[in-house]
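Q: what sequence does this backbone want?
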């Protein structure tokens, strides 16, 4: 068991489906004293969009927000600073917290490709430990490599195949070519008489309309198949429990594994994925994981007839949130995650 007893952690993270809250909670359970702040001043669609496009247009709000944080923590001493992603965080804040805590270890984790967010590269110089979920970025920028994780509530769902209502479930936000790939998979599944459930989600109607004007892939989207209500973890787990397999569609330029990958496999459910790089991971098993060719999507009927092969204890542990935290704060795991590269 990891121990962070009496360690004081300043933790800032972009909001990502409340996983940041789960990390903060687990750090506290492991004995740490955690001060958590959202990395963005606001999570409105407008503020997220303007930070992503040109955060200088939002600079006064960012400066005000981070000065307020500095005012709250100026008399505190920390052992660690953890930043996840860092789209909005200003350089003056990173410099000031290190000045206030010269012995503090600075830890950075990123779960998006740096070629999609090149502005994040300039943050790297401030950190002692730098970790990414994207293998190519780890090589190019000299970072440690560590994929994402699953939360314990996803682990080992009831595997009684008689209870399955679906052969394939897809739950995901609407972006890039997800709809195109998803609909092709559904058509192939229908031809094999497989039962499916697809749930496409968007953050807001106005934001989606704007994205649809810009992104040629989204122009093909049938709005009747889109929901603006986000499913919570328990609702997602309920669908997993009813399904033989789960479809995961990564962004076409992203090879780091989505968090859905780990949740699905920890749940004891088969995974169908468009991410070909999954073949380079220690837990890859073609009996559990069907890898799609985006340009020529095919489903193998035999894949759905056989039961999921349980993961070994080491793989299940290494994919866990505790292992993720251990990699961030204790020691890197490059030897494990890179063993099949």
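A:
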């Amino acid at each position: 068991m990891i121990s962070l007893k009496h360690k004081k952690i300043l933790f800032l993270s972009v909001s990502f489906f409340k996983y940041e809250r789960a990390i903060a909670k687990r750090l506290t359970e492991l004995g740490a004293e955690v001060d958590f702040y959202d990395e963005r001043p606001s999570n409105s669609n407008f503020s997220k969009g303007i930070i992503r496009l040109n955060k200088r247009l939002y600079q006064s709000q960012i400066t005000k927000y981070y000065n307020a944080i500095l005012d709250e923590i100026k008399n505190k001493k920390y052992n660690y600073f953890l930043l996840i992603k860092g789209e909005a965080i200003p350089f003056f804040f990173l410099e000031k917290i290190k000045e206030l805590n010269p012995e503090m270890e600075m830890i950075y984790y990123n779960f998006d490709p740096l070629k999609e967010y090149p502005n994040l590269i300039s943050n790297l110089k401030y950190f002692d430990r730098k970790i990414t979920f994207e293998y190519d970025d780890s090589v190019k920028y000299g970072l440690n490599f560590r994929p994402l994780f699953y939360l314990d509530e996803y682990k080992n769902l009831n595997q009684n195949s008689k209870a399955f209502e679906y052969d394939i479930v897809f739950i995901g936000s609407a972006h890039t070519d997800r709809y195109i790939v998803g609909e092709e998979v559904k058509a192939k599944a229908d031809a094999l008489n497989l039962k499916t459930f697809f749930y496409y989600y968007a953050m807001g109607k106005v934001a989606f309309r704007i994205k649809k004007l810009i992104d040629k892939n989204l122009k093909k989207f049938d709005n009747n198949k889109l929901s603006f209500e986000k499913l919570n973890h328990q609702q997602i787990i309920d669908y997993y429990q009813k399904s033989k397999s789960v479809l995961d569609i990564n962004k076409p330029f992203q090879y780091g594994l989505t968090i859905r990958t780990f949740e699905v496999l920890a749940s004891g459910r088969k995974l169908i994925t468009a991410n070909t790089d999954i073949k380079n991971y220690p837990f890859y098993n073609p009996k559990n994981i069907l890898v799609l060719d985006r340009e020529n999507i095919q489903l193998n009927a035999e894949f759905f007839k056989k039961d999921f092969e349980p993961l070994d204890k080491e793989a299940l542990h290494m994919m866990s949130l505790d292992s993720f935290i251990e990699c961030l704060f204790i020691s890197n795991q490059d030897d494990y995650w890179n063993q099949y590269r």
